[in-house]
Write a structure and sequence with these properties.
- The longest helix is centred in the last third of the chain and has 12 residues, at 46-57.
- By secondary structure, the chain is an alpha+beta fold.
- Helix content is 21%, strand content 35%.
- The protein has one domain (10-76): Ubiquitin-like (UB roll) (Roll).
- The radius of gyration is 16 Å and the shape is extended.
- The structure holds zinc ion.
- Zinc ion is lined by residues 3, 5-6, 8, 36, 38-39, 41.
Amino acid sequence: MQCFECGGQLKHSVTTLHLQKGGKPVFIENVPVTQCEQCGEEYLAGPVAEKVGELLDKECQPQVILSVPVVNYKMAV
Ligand SMILES: [Zn+2]
């Protein structure tokens, strides 16, 4: 399989997805993806995307709670 963006070689990798649940950010770590070695484009397989959707739907116990700095562009600039 080749990258749809640049035609580069794809390799198996893991990524952290940054998602939203009820307006709050949720990170899902260690998600298996195929990633382009050339441009870094990540591809999520159908079944993996489905599982991620299920994870977001049900209340799962987070392994880690992060406090995240948030900068408001309008106030900071
Ligand atoms: Zn690529």
